[in-house]
Amino acid sequence: QDVQMEDYEALESIGSGSFGMIRKVRRKADGQILARKEIDFRKMTSKEKEQLVSEVNILKDLKHPNIVEFLERVIDREHSFIYIIMEYCEGGDLATVIKRHRERSVPIPEDFVWRVMAQLVSALDECHCGLVLDEETQKMIPRHILHRDLKPDNVFLDAKKNVKLGDFGLSRSLTDPKLNFAKTYVGTPYYMSPELLSESLYDSKSDIWSLGCVVYEMCALLPPFLADTQSELTAKIKYGMVSRIPNRYSEELNQVVKAMLQVDPRRRPTTTELLTVPKLQLFAKQQE
Ligand SMILES: CNC(=O)c1c(C)[nH]c(/C=C2\C(=O)Nc3ccc(Cl)cc32)c1C
Prior knowledge:
Elements: E1 8-17, E2 20-27, E3 33-40, H1 46-60, E4 70-76, E5 81-87, E6 92-93, H2 94-103, H3 110-129, E7 131-134, E8 139-142, E9 155-157, E10 163-165, H4 170-174, H5 181-184, H6 194-197, H7 204-220, H8 230-239, H9 251-260, H10 271-274, H11 278-286
Antiparallel strand pairs: 1-2, 2-3, 3-5, 4-5, 6-9, 7-8, 9-10
Helix pairs in contact: 3-7, 3-11, 7-9
The chain binds the ligand CNC(=O)c1c(C)[nH]c(/C=C2\C(=O)Nc3ccc(Cl)cc32)c1C.
Residues 14-15, 22, 35, 68, 86, 88-90, 92-93, 156, 166-167 line the site of the ligand CNC(=O)c1c(C)[nH]c(/C=C2\C(=O)Nc3ccc(Cl)cc32)c1C.
């Protein structure tokens, strides 16, 4: 039957961002703890609304152990809110984990870096090359879904420290995609790929660049490119000069990070190629 608002008991707020607030909720039927994204659609343009619908439809049929599970969408017409019910990730977001390690000057163990990378490569592989049945042709075709907003704030950890990639471009559809530096100072521009900054086409290799930035930041506890102004940051990203991740990390890990941070998207590996890296195969298997 139709899902109603009152089927969930609202608990504390657990996150916020450009897309709206995320609240911890308890499903009354079985006491299950879930996360509910609360989006006020009064503030949305009609274009954003249709983008939200298409992003939710993408999420709905993306079932993967490393992608945050979408359960339900509830429309509260009375308060003009859309609620998106998703799985609860007890470990919170990766940005907070990195921030905690940086504040305490405690490096993130290399095995954890490999595990997070392996699971994010697996999630991106499902998005980029996962096969889905095409209604018309009744043929399996690749999804070719691009995340577009991969950053530590959008990577979550569940109770078993499994990694979950956050929602797809919802934040993009809900906020002005152009970067006004002040608003995106919280992190997005650090992960913009060179091709995106030169307004050329975004494709799956741009997600690979962002993944490289996330893995780099787990090792160095700082993003690969830092600047005080957008133009300086853009110049650094396009120039693509990156210092090696700290020496405590293996050359094998350094090579993978360097490959993902190649300025020329054609020189970056695909998820398929990354899944042939022995350490990533090992860690992707382990979570199963
Ligand atoms: C301080 N907040 C947290 O520790 C935290 C916790 C315990 N969970 C979350 C976030 C999510 C969560 O628990 N489930 C989610 C589903 C989709 C998205 Cl985009 C985010 C979440 C956060 C940000």
